[in-house]
Every structure is written in structure tokens, then in C-alpha cells.
Amino acid sequence: MIDIKQFVRHNILSLKPYSTARDEYHGEPLEVYLDANESPWDSGFNRYPDPAQKLLKLRLSEIKGLPMDHIFVGNGSDEAIDHCFRVFCEPGIDNVVSIAPTYGMYKVAAAINNVEFRECALGGDNFAFSVEKLLAMSDAHTKLIFVCSPNNPTGGSLGRGEIIKLLKAFHGIVVVDEAYIDFSSEKSLSSELVNYPNLIVLQTLSKAWGMASLRLGLALACPEIIRIFGQVKYPYNINSLAQQTVLSRLSIDISKQIEIVVHERDMLYDYLSKSPKIIKVYPSDSNFLLVRVPRPRELYNQLIAGGIIVRDRSGVVGCEGCLRITVGTPEQNVRLMEIMR
Ligand SMILES: *Cc1c(COP(=O)(O)O)cnc(C)c1O
């Protein structure tokens, strides 16, 4: 087994993390809390939240089929993305390799952390993924490889086998963003965490789980990485309202909603593929479709006039002429199809 400590920045390895009042006392709950300079009057909000998010992680652990020490929860996936840079990349020295086009946040987080961001173009007209090309762009200072599968904005999966090839071949950390995994026909790479300590899987409650406004992102990784992320995060990164609300909503069965979205996506794929307004619809393993059209701005405005907002991705390199359309409710999709007719 490789030791992931070799990839961690020295200042992070020697970090003495902040210890909260709640970290210091580990006994049973008592009647009087005079340890955290909180207000003594119960407002429902006067106490600091659990910095370790134990109840929430316990439930997530059941849902994800992973021990609690393999789970980090952050203020959206964005927090976990930032921790990847802060923990592993020495600013001005290390670099990161990723694919293009992909989710824009990796590049922004790299820039904020002063880390060089190398983009490996997905190939040809079908956004083909090449592990060899990705590895060829890496060097001794490449600490992270960021991939996204199913990929945003292209919609397709990169292939489990290919990502495992990458995990085997790359001497560094491989981050796999699985924000759309719940809509995918491929299963999560989180089952590979036991085999690859250099794997970080990012997931989110913002898409299939319908909790975008609550801001809850997950990093699934080996206990060593989770422990370090826990030291780097803000002590109270998830507020008590979010912890409680997410916990209660995790008992809702979302499988039917996912089934509908997947069915509607495949139906829209067929419908849009036949539309004379559209050059190409890309195969999707997610809850959106990327479509290439002759005049994207014209179609975008036509949809706006019909009361529908989609994402114009035509300015993104590799996505020339493309709009990204999220799958809506069956009624919303009918409305979309009427405008596309
Ligand atoms: C939507 C999305 C996320 C979710 O980010 P949150 O901060 O958890 O809301 C993460 N990655 C990708 C690729 C996404 O498209």
C-alpha cells in the first residue's frame, strides 16, 4: 500500500489543528455548559453545532456503505475541492492535471491556491477520454489528477475501467467528481477505496438528493485523507440547521425521482436527436443533455422567450455551438419539446 503522507504538504503534516470546546469534553451530555462562551438562553440556536457531524455521518455511512472514517462533509463539493489543493499542492511549485471541458471550479480553486492547472482536451467529436494523454501531461510536481464522471458539461461517463487504470498508473492523488453518479448506469468508484488509498471520490447532495440550497458535499477517501481534511476545514463548517435538515431529508426515498429523470433524459435524447434544429445530442449518464446547434444564441433566446432558461456553453473551448439542458419534470420537458419542434 502506498503511503499518502508523501503527497501531503509539510506544513499540513505538522499542523496542530484548532481544538474546539466540544472537542475537549468527550463525556456524556450534562446539564450545564459553561465551556464555549455561548449564550445560556435556549433559542434553538445558542449552542455551537457538532464539529464532527457525527449523526449526519452515521446516516451517510449507512447510505454509502462506507465506515464513518471514510467520509468528509463540507459546505458543498466546492469546500472539498479547495481542501484537495490546500492539502496536497505547494503553491507556485506543484501542478494539477485535469480534463477539458469539465466543471469550472477545479480551475478556479487552482488559481486561488496559485497552483498550475494543466488541461488535457477530451478527444474528437465524442469527447473521448485517454488515460495515456492525461499521464503524459503529468510530471514529478503533479500532485493531483482531477476527473469528473459523469462529466459536466459533456454528460457522459469516462469509464470505470479507465479511471482504475489511472489510479494504478498515477503516482499521486486521483480525484473523481461523481456529482451525477446517482443518474449513471456505472457504479461509484467508492467501492475501490479499499484498494486505492490515493483515490478521493467527490459526491454531493445538490443534484439527485435535491438539497442544493443546504450546501452539503462529500469527500469519500481513506481515513488518513479524511483525518487531514478534518484538520484543515473550518471547525464548524456545517451549521446546525443544515446538519439537522439534511439528516431528516436523507430518510426520503429519492429512487422514484431518479428513475423519472433518467427516463425523461433518454426520452429527450431521442426527441432532440431527431430535431432539425440540432446537429448533435451527446449521450448522457447524468441529469442534463449537451446539444450542439448551428446558432446557439438564437436558440437560447428562443427558449428564454418561451420561459425556459438553459446554460449557454458555446463559449467553452470544445463546446462551440453547445447548450446544456437540465432534465426537468415531465411537464417542463413537454414545454421544452414544444419550443424545439
Ligand atoms: C453541480 C456539481 C457539483 C456540486 O457542487 P456543490 O458545491 O456540492 O453544490 C460538483 N461537481 C460538479 C461537476 C457539478 O456539476
How would you describe the overall organization of this protein?
Strand 8 and strand 9 form a beta hairpin. This protein has twelve helices and eleven strands. It is α/β, with parallel strands linked by helices. The longest helix is centred in the last third of the chain and has 20 residues. Helix 4 crosses helix 5 and helix 10 packs parallel to helix 12. The protein binds pyridoxal-5'-phosphate. Pyridoxal-5'-phosphate binds next to helix 4.
| Number of helical stretches of at least 4 residues | 12
Indicate the mean pLDDT.
96
Instruction: Determine the strand fraction and express it as a percent band.
Output: 15-25%
Order of helices and strands: HHHEHEHEHEHEEEHHHEEHEEH
As laid out across the biggest beta sheet, the strand order is 1-7-6-5-4-2-3
The first-to-last residue Cα distance is 56 Å
- What characterizes the major β-sheet? 7 strands, mixed
| Helical content class | 25-40%
* Rg over alpha carbons: 22 Å
Bound molecules: pyridoxal-5'-phosphate
Give the uncertain stretches in residue-range form.
Answer: none
Number of strands: 11
Structural class: alpha/beta
Question: What layout of secondary structure does this protein have?
Answer:
Elements: H1 10-13, H2 21-24, H3 54-64, E1 71-74, H4 77-88, E2 95-100, H5 105-112, E3 116-121, H6 131-136, E4 142-148, H7 160-169, E5 173-177, E6 199-204, E7 217-220, H8 223-232, H9 240-249, H10 255-274, E8 280-281, E9 288-292, H11 296-305, E10 311-312, E11 322-326, H12 330-340
Parallel strand pairs: 2-3, 2-4, 4-5, 5-6
Antiparallel strand pairs: 1-7, 6-7, 8-9, 9-11, 10-11
Helix pairs in contact: 4-5, 10-12
Pyridoxal-5'-phosphate binds at residues 76-78, 103, 148, 152, 177, 179, 204, 206-207, 212, 217.
